[in-house]
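Researcher: Next entry in the queue.
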Amino acid sequence: MKRKRKPISEFEAQRIAQLLMQRHAAHLAEDEWFEVEGYRTPDEVYTKMTLRNEDDSMVYPIECRIDLEYNGIKSQLQGQDLLLDFQDYYFGRYFEDDRDLYVTIDWGNIQFDEYTLQARGQIRNLKVERLTSRFLAGDLSAEEVEQQTKSKSSSS
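Model: Structure for this entry, 156 residues:
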């Protein structure tokens, strides 16, 4: 049976992202920002909070999900707030630790307050991944890849 997903509205996601930007402003580079997305179902909530920069050379999504029944959570919004609170807390610690704190790449259980949630995350360099794909497809030479990776990084 397919669970009916109710996505976090664009308005709500933008509002949350703006609050995160204000809260963590001292730790963000000029070209960095947060994005938020997710959904709620009758039995689980999923959220993804992503820290990214303008050229996609640093994209760090932290994904979380929580089983509402297992955790005794009656409200989907309470579950959503719990996940967003954890992600906000995590990014706060990430910045405090000079960006040297990571969650696992695969889903792993995390205790947060009296709740058990699952989280995963992986920092990616989408800019280099795209250039690599184009290189492997024969659309770019090695020299062009090197030039494109140097030109943006030396100007920032």
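Model: Residues 127-156 form one domain.
Researcher: Noted, moving on.
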